[in-house]
Design goal:
Mean pLDDT: 89
Catalytic activity: Fe(3+)(out) + L-ascorbate(in) = monodehydro-L-ascorbate radical(in) + Fe(2+)(out) + H(+)
Protein name: Lysosomal membrane ascorbate-dependent ferrireductase CYB561A3
Number of strands: 0
Radius of gyration: 22 Å
GO molecular function, one term: transmembrane ascorbate ferrireductase activity
Shape: globular
CATH topology: Four Helix Bundle (Hemerythrin (Met), subunit A)
Membrane topology: Multi-pass membrane protein
Pfam family, one: Cytochrom_B561
CATH architecture: Up-down Bundle
């Protein structure tokens, strides 16, 4: 049998390349979809707490607790995901990098502030009701995520924004920062999803339709959990996509 010619042998790779081009999604439309999905998650958790859980207050009642899921989903998942994707914007690939560093750090700091307020809401509710703190897996995982988040932000600020940080330190820490950024996002998603499930188990029992009978609230909150999971997976996928990563440049990153 005659060996295939170069042109014939290249058909397979060419077809594969065309298929990849067909499946390729431009970043900006994807980012718009992701932003819509994030806003939907925030709107749904707010609707859940307002419609089924009684609304919001600062009186130490269950309405104070309702701030917890809203602030956690908004800060720890959606705003944190937006901060993680800053360097995937094509506008960040040229010119000075410092303004984008500041934007990245500011979004992450905003996410951290909302997260701390969310923790304050749940601790205030537990203390006013005489409920023990930090006894469930959800609470352990959530607090651990927040502590890791705070260490990540402080280390990133020291390594990338302080002018006297040496270039070798930035180069050494950068892959660690990227790894923990994705890890913290997935831990945030896991904490939020487990918290939604825990709240449903506690709420849908006496005086309400049992969770196992899947009332409308359970369907709505479970759907919210799935959307949060999809959001987190898509953000991590965008971070891992090579064609959307900022081209490595020695001078801007090392000299700023």
């Amino acid at each position: 049998m005659a060996a295939p010619s170069d042109e014939e042998g290249a058909v397979g790779p060419r077809c594969q390349h065309r298929a990849m081009d067909t499946l390729d999604v431009p970043f900006l439309p994807f980012c718009g979809f992701l932003g819509t999905l994030g806003l939907l998650c925030v709107a749904m958790v707010g609707t859940w707490c307002q419609h089924w859980r009684g609304g919001f207050s600062l009186d130490g009642s269950s309405r104070t607790f309702n701030w917890h899921p809203v602030l956690m989903v908004t800060g720890l998942v959606v705003l944190y995901g937006a901060a993680a994707l800053v360097y995937r914007l094509p506008n960040t690939w040229s010119g000075p990098k410092l303004p984008w560093k500041v934007l990245h750090a500011s979004l992450a700091l905003g996410a951290f502030v909302l997260t701390v307020l969310g923790l304050a809401a749940v601790f205030s509710f537990h203390n006013s009701q005489g409920t023990p703190n930090m006894y469930s897996l959800h609470s352990w995982m959530g607090l651990g995520t927040v502590l890791l988040f705070s260490c990540q932000w402080a280390a990133g600020f020291g390594a990338f924004l302080l002018p006297w940080a040496p270039a070798w330190l930035r180069a050494l820490y950068k892959p660690v920062h990227v790894f923990f950024g994705s890890s913290i996002l997935m831990l945030s998603v896991a904490s939020c999803v487990s918290g939604i499930n825990e709240k449903l188990f506690f709420s849908l029992k006496n005086g309400t339709t049992a969770y196992k009978l899947l009332p409308a609230e359970a369907v709505f909150a479970n759907t919210l959990g799935l959307l949060i999971l999809v959001f987190g997976v898509l953000v991590v996928g965008a971070l891992a996509r090579p064609s959307w990563q900022r081209p490595d440049s020695n001078s801007p990153d090392s000299r700023q």
